[in-house]
Amino acid sequence: MSQSFWETGEAEKETHSPAENVAAETGPLTVSAGDFAALEERIVRAVELVNQARRARAAAEERAAKAEAELREQAPQLERSQSEIDRLQAEVARMKAERVEVQGRLEKLLKQLDALEL
User: Fold this and answer.
1) Residue 97, CA atoms < 13 Å, CB-side half-sphere
2) How many CA atoms lie within 13 A of 41 on its CB side?
3) CA 89 to CA 82: how far, in whole Å?
4) Residue 114: what pLDDT?
5) Which of these, 108, 106, 110, 87, lies nearest to 98 by C-alpha position?
6) Residues 5 and 11: beta-carbon distance below 8 Å
7) Residue among 3, 23, 21 nearest 12 (CA)
8) Assuming Cys at both sites, which of 20, 51, 58, 83 could form a disulfide with 16, CB separation 3.0 to 4.6 Å?
9) DSSP of 48-80, one letter per residue?
10) Is the predicted pLDDT of residue 12 greater than 90, yes or no?
11) Where do the H-state alpha helices sit in 9-32?
């Protein structure tokens, strides 16, 4: 009788992960102390960079929150200022129109005075 799938050991071969298969084919992985120290240093630098980026992000988010709070505080003042600007512009326009009217009256009066002197 022929051997079954389980009896041949094929089941055991297929249950190994690809990394285990590579390790089995290449032998034990050896890392020198210098390589390990260099890798450790790179990891430490990477962690420091991540922490620095997180601190910078937190600081930027804090500044953004403060700026938004200031904007919310200043919004009503901006609206009041805009209302005041609109009112003053209307007043300036009214005064310009009044000036033109007064200028016209003065010219008319001056013409009447010139007519009386003749």
Assistant:
1) 6
2) 6
3) 10
4) 87
5) 106
6) yes
7) 21
8) 20
9) HHHHHHHHHHHHHHHHHHHHHHHHHHHHHHHHH
10) no
11) 10-14, 18-26
Task: Name the strand (E) or helix (H) holding 104.
Answer: helix 33-117
Residue found under tokens 């799938």: 5
Q: Structure pTM? A: 0.45
Residue with tokens 């962690």: 47
**Token code pair at residue 40:** 């450790």
d(CA 27, CA 115): 123
Please say whether the beta carbons of 32 and 26 come within 8 A.
no
Distance CA 40, CA 46 (A): 10
Please report, as a single letter, which amino acid is at residue 69.
A
What is the length of the chain? 118
Total Cβ atoms within 10 A of residue 20: 10
